[in-house]
Design a protein that fits this description.
Length: about 100
């Protein structure tokens, strides 16, 4: 029986990796994890690197959520430190329609 795989998108949030994509180690690791541990139910359909900028993060996430080929799951990595440049939580929080503390 053939089934369509669930679509995962991986968003790397890093000024460094945005300037030099060869520094990104997370994309390959996350894709490998979905392939190895996803029970043949997941496909990483999209990967993108954006700078640590609130609007860039929001635009990418929104494009993956609102299109006809929407992602079932979006994984973000990076931009979660405590410096002034780390903006991932502030960028993602207003996009969440129903908060689920402990899951998000």
């Amino acid at each position: 029986m053939s089934h369509e795989k669930l679509r995962a998108a991986v968003l790397i949030i890093s000024d460094t990796a945005f300037q030099d994509p060869s520094t990104d180690k997370a994309s390959a690791l996350l894709t490998e994890t979905f392939t190895r541990d996803g029970g043949d139910q997941w496909a990483v359909s999209e990967q993108q690197v954006v700078p640590d900028d609130i609007l860039a993060i929001q635009r990418q996430v929104t494009s993956w959520c609102d299109g006809s080929e929407y992602a079932n799951l979006i994984i973000t990595t990076g931009g979660t430190g405590f410096t002034g440049k780390d903006n991932t939580p502030e960028a993602i929080s207003p996009l969440i329609h129903k908060h689920a503390p402990g899951l998000v």
